[in-house]
Amino acid sequence: MTSPGTLPTATERLVVETQQVDDTRSLLTLVDPQRPLLWLRKGCGLAGIGEALRLEFSGPDRMREAAVVWRDIAAAATVEDPLRMPGTGLVAFGTFAFDDSSAQTSVLLVPQIILGRRDGTSWITRIRLDATASDAPDPLATAFGPTYRLTLTPGAESPAGFQAHVADAVDRILAGDLSKVVLSRDLIGHLPADADLRRIVSDLAVGYPDCWTFAVDGLLGSSPETLVSVQDGSVTARVLAGTASRGADAASDQDAAVNLATSAKDQDEHQFAVQSVLASLRPHTSHVLTSEIPFTLKLPNLWHLATDVEGTLTDNATSLDLIDALHPTAAVAGSPTPAAVALIAELEPFDRGRYAGPVGWVGADGDGEWAIALRCAQVDQDGTVTAYAGGGIVAESVPEKELAETRMKFRPIVDAFG
Ligand SMILES: C=C(O[C@H]1C=CC=C(C(=O)O)[C@@H]1O)C(=O)O
């Protein structure tokens, strides 16, 4: 159900102006320290300041409703955008809950100001409701606040509880109820008042430059997995499933990658995820290509099995329509999807919130970039931090190894807060 939020009326249409600028300031230093709004990869991306519009969604139709509402908002907006690049003009940042019945809201946020940088071009976009007299003031860079350290400790799911649930899941897979399920656990902590969250985002962006580093409505993280990116009729995705730890030296690191690439268990886990993405994209795309065999993706904390997917849009689906079609992939739910989602609800003793949901941005033409919210934490207004990490469970999964895998996956967030 869509909450009324501030839907534009005939007299409240968004007025959007983009201008190229010569701005070399760090995008990070410009955003709100307590509520940063950011989307970054390899030094490029979008920083949002202020809030022109906040749209909230929940329930099973949260993404479908967002897609419909966004079409209307974009159609009603007056946009001056001489650059016409991905991320220029009207943009909303978004984060969506994993589960249909999550208590966590899903949101699209349109900032008052967006600073963007891509392929050597920088711009500023100013957005206002046309009933509003003046633009928001130009953003000022501010120094980061004092340093702080936060220890994250087990939340609703203890390490022992997680291992027991992995064993339960293996039993259910062996009984033939399903083929794969992704189970996760949580860590929690409490931030000091006025903690500057840009410190966390900065650590993530510096430590994981090849990942999508994001901060949207308190959800902070650095995800290696592209759920979908849509640009001028081209659709791309990066599917990840199958994980190994990095070796301590060059030789053992290479062995770890080779073992991952040749592990039947990881290849199985991976194929479920690839097939789920292909099945969801098929009705909207043609000429879909994937790498012939999965490749090993090296991250600072681990190796993943990865498959890149490319296709051509055959309908007028927006990136919001596509996240609706794709979510939840077998990289974060399992296979078959309904049985996996039901088993997650049965075994995980917490609401995933926006963990493993889509996070990213959409433009006025519906193009956009969306990651799966992994390696992330939700920071609530009261300073409560909840981090999540999980792994794909198949028939051959071993509880101790799955627990170790979650430790590796927590590392970016645990290090950034610690
Ligand atoms: C569910 C997570 O990772 C997914 C993405 C990549 C590899 C995964 C795996 O090997 O299990 C998971 O499918 C997580 O990071 O919490």
TrEMBL record:
It catalyses: chorismate = isochorismate. Residues 160-409 form the Chorismate-utilising enzyme C-terminal domain. GO terms for molecular function: isochorismate synthase activity. This is isochorismate synthase. Belongs to the isochorismate synthase family. Keywords: Isomerase. The keyword ATP-binding does not apply. It comes from Mycetocola manganoxydans. Pfam families: Chorismate_bind (PF00425). It comes from the Bacteria. The keyword Isomerase applies. Its EC number is 5.4.4.2.
